[in-house]
Amino acid sequence: MTKMTYVAALTYALENLTDAPADVREKLEALKAQTEKRNSADRKPTKAQLANEALKDKVMAVLTTDPVTVTELMAKDAELAALSNQKVSALVNALVRDGKALKVPDGRKTTFCVAA
Fold it and tell me: What is the dihedral of CA 9, 13, 15, 20, to 10 degrees?
């Protein structure tokens, strides 16, 4: 069984509402087109996403093969030190999801290093 998406539900409604007024069909078709556009993968990145990519590059430049905590990582670079701990942590975790960094559990603290 596949998950019912908004696009699939709108397609089903358009196929089965044969006696619906023209303006209702028009609205449903516009809603379907809008939903398909919003879900497309070829969207332009936002300003914040572009800024985060630059910050991820900065984190990768500072990150080494030796595991370090987020706080230690921030201490190595002035630009990263100006950010909040949560922001740097989110950037490093995004790099882990991308496969560029590794999360190394070290007792009660989490450390990160460059993926080999």
Answer: -160
Rounded to whole angstroms, the Cα distance separating 10 from 8 reads 5
Token pair, residue 89, equals: 């942590």
Instruction: Determine the Cα–Cα distance for residues 24 and 71; give it in Å rounded to an integer.
Output: 56
**pTM value surpassing 0.70:** no
Query: Residue 71's closest CA among 98, 97, 109?
Result: 109
Give the contacts of 67 (CB within 8 A, at least 6 positions apart).
104, 106, 111, 112, 113
34-44: average pLDDT: 78
Facing residues of 68 across strands? 112
Buried b (16+ CB within 10 A) or exposed e, 37-76: eeeeeeeeeeeeeeebeebbebbeebbeeebbbbeebbee
Q: Are 114 and 65 in contact (CB under 8 A)?
A: yes
- Residue 3 CA to residue 23 CA, distance in Å, equals 28
